[in-house]
Amino acid sequence: MAELEPHGIHTLAVDVTKLDTIEAAVHTIIEKEGHIDILVNNAGISRSAPLVEQDLQTARKIYDTNVWGLLAMSQTVAPHMMKRRAGTIVHVGSIVGIRPIPWSGIYASSKAAVHAMSDIMRMELMAFNVNVTTVYPGAIKSNIAANSSEEFALKEGSMYEQFKQRIEERLWLSQQPGCTPTDEFARRVVAKVLLPSPPREIYCGRESTLAWVSSFLPNWLVDWVIVRRFKLLA
């Protein structure tokens, strides 16, 4: 991120799973700038695996980053905004938290938790004039699939060996040709977050609208479509 410096953007290293690094970064910013206007909780990791064979240590790591890291960041920053009665917190969720799909059960459930936390936090912070926005990205160009693929492996003797190729294909699903470029996603989201009254929800990226529409359809119909799309019947 060194190329950001010439634009007047200063970076700080934070591990959202370690409270001391969060507190140190927030303290540095408050000391230097006096306040924080916007917090964007974007840190997230994913792994692909059948849910009943998901390694529990990996599952906890995902929740530590995607859920508890988000909560820790919010708990550290929100009090400063509440005292000023001004600020915006942005939680980056995912369309799979609305419409879960196979082989990403822990990631999808972590994002569903993010959505619930975001809705509750928005209501709880209204009295302090702090905005909370939930972003529901679709297929956005990023490094999340590449990072996830480094640790992809089925457990020894997996009952899902015949689905291994399909699980790997799911891992890269959001990075297929036609996914929304990162800079386009950032521009669209930032423009809405900087509005005087930021929206409660932002749907952005390929298939984000489709996921929203599917949330109104009966589960039997969605199951029928997804089972065939992902070839879940051996």
UniProtKB/TrEMBL annotation:
GO terms for cellular component: endoplasmic reticulum. SUPFAM superfamilies: NAD(P)-binding Rossmann-fold domains. One of its GO terms (molecular function) is oxidoreductase activity. It comes from the Eukaryota. Pfam families: adh_short. Gene3D superfamilies: NAD(P)-binding Rossmann-like Domain (3.40.50.720). Keywords: NADP, Oxidoreductase. InterPro entries: NAD(P)-bd_dom_sf, Sc_DH/Rdtase_CS, SDR_fam. Belongs to the short-chain dehydrogenases/reductases (SDR) family. PANTHER family: NADPH-DEPENDENT 1-ACYLDIHYDROXYACETONE PHOSPHATE REDUCTASE. This is Oxidoreductase.
